[in-house]
User: Fold these one by one.
Assistant:
Number 1:
Amino acid sequence: MKKVIAVIGCGRIADAAHFPALSKLEQVRIKYACDLIEEKTSAMKAKYPSVEQVITDYRIALADSEVDAVFVLTPNYSHFTITMDALRAGKHVMCEKPITVNYELSQEMAAEAERRGLMLNIGVCNRYHRSVELLRQMNREGRFGNLYHVYCSFRNFRSIPGLGGPFTDKAQSGGGVLIDWGVHFLDLILYVLGDVRLKSATCDAYGEMAKDMKAYRYRSMWAENTADFENGVNNVEDFISGYIRTDKASISFNGAWAQNIDEDEMYIDFLGDRGGARLQYGGQFVFWEGGTLEKHAPAYDIPNMYLCEDRAFIESLHTGEKCRNHIEYILESARLLSVLYESAERREEIKL
């Protein structure tokens, strides 16, 4: 039997990722596309004929007894309210990352889903990326030997998104480059390591590149249509650096929405005593054997991770089994982000 869903939020991630994926799933009916801006919903219905109705009030979908689940694809600050409303209405939820703007509210969301016996998945799509799956498998098989350290870089040249808009307003976003890009990298690492216990974390955060928004120079800007150079706020970090100790590997990272080095450095290094790998974020990895000094670039297909993620969510509604991006398995990533921000604010290491 098909599951009936409503998609709440018809912005970039809906159009680029979830509507194309959901439209390919035969076991899904997209009954509603919802957005506060009616033109966005109309555009989605025109582009994706499987959308049956368009609405501007998500409560209409929550009041519909036919709807089994909702996809919450709205800005960070609204994740908590919409998800909690949906759970209280008896709907399963697939919510885009981050869970919400802080760890305490994330815990409330998880508790509400558990209390009501409903599925709540989070859109950490890299858990369904084939490269990540292979690296996790290799670690479990001991290919790295003692995987003692992981380093990641998510740095770019002057690419602050939507400057002055929701991306750079901490009240709406919860943070800057760490919660926007870092959540993907750090969750990916924790997933590859598997069953990690955090021990301590230290972090420094800087917002240096656009203190004067009107003077900020850039070549291109993601979400530029949300920017507000005249009246907006930029009170989030554009550079982050930190070090994490776990009961397994240590982790270090540097992230920059904007830096005065014109290089894109988006990769993760896995360092073991028997072998090591470099994963180009979003792409494939290269593995080096420590014993033979041989370099391996395995050949494999990379399926659409959003399609895999959405399919897994729908299948979990049929089986009742939690899949790899159920909120229960993502809370540690949210806790880590919270601790890193606390460390940056206090300018000291946080023991866990």
Number 2:
Amino acid sequence: MCGKYSLADGAGGFVKHPAITTIAQLETYLAGIPKGTRGIKKARRALRLMHDNSWSPMETVTAMLLAMPRRMGGFGLPSPRLNRRIELDQSSSQVGGQENVYVDLLWPDAKFGIEYNGEAYHRNTSRDLRRELTLRKAQLDIVTLGIQQVRDQVQFREVVSQAAEHLGVKLRHATPLIAKKRTKLLAALLPHGTVQRNGSVCFPKPPWSLPAKIAQSWT
């Protein structure tokens, strides 16, 4: 609802479109619902786990794994800003050939971000290297990951460790119960058998998904 895509018929199992609403608008809406209304507490709990401005299901999955509470299988990091636009100074703009860049998951104060690469085996090397140089010139430390890093707990833990170091967060040791919850959460967010040969993820169409023609017609 707050992202710029919907699960729908089409390549990859989703289509892009403008966001339907925002977290702030939903908070205002829920504030006007009387206490004791059926489902209101669950809706407010869910709202605390949401993120604005996601552009793909995997960006949503990555953000949830990082920021959800430990008791629910996440790592409890501060929530990142998704697809935040960074205005480049003149020297960085000259390197990148553009006036601004977008970072998938960004913690602006820490100057740290995570980029999800949805096509691990068909990258435009020249473009990606230029982008990396531009971000470094802008003094942003960026870690890039793909589906294999998300699925593998050891690799993902390393990404989390780097994020925690930049954010000044001390990670707690994962107990067997927490590790089990993380495996369960990942299985719920990322169904098995959805990884394509090019490294991207195709999400299965849920019963409530939209026909692509309808989703793409939204403005």
